[in-house]
Amino acid sequence: MEKLYTAVVTATGGRDGHIKSSDGIIDLEMKKPKALGGEDGYANPELLFAGAWGSCYLGALGSVGKRDGVDVTGATTEVHISFNRESETSYFLSAELHVHIPGLDLAKTQKLADAAHKGCPYSKATRGNIDVKIIAV
C-alpha cells in the first residue's frame, strides 16, 4: 500500500461540537439536525459523510466512464445518508446513491453506477457494514 494523502480533522464536543481540519479549510460548528433534537443551519456528520461520499463516487464514475468509453460529463449523485434507530441505545446508518448521467438510459446508467460503486473508496469502506442502494435516476 502506498499512502498518497492523509486528511487530518480534529473533532471536539461530539454532535454538538466543532470540527477543524489541520489546513484550516474546514472549520465548522456541528449541531444535531432538527430531526434529532438539534437545530437547523449547522453541519452534522451525516451531511459531511454524504458530501464526501458523493464527491468520491463521482470520481469513480468518471474512471468507469472513461474505461467504457462513455461520456459522464454532467453526472450527479444525490447521496441520502439516514440515521436509523435499532433500539433505545443502538443506531445505524443506511445509504442511497441516486445516480444520474445526462443522455444515458436507465439500464446503462445503472450498469455504470454499479461498476463505480465497486471501485469507489467510500463504497469499499462501507461495503458489508451498512445497507446501500445504488439507484439510476
From TrEMBL:
SUPFAM superfamilies, per the entry: OsmC-like
Task: List the InterPro entries.
Answer: KH_dom-like_a/b (IPR015946), OHR (IPR019953), OsmC/Ohr_fam (IPR003718), OsmC/Ohrsf (IPR036102)
Q: Which family does it belong to?
A: Belongs to the OsmC/Ohr family.
What's the protein here called?
A: Organic hydroperoxide resistance protein
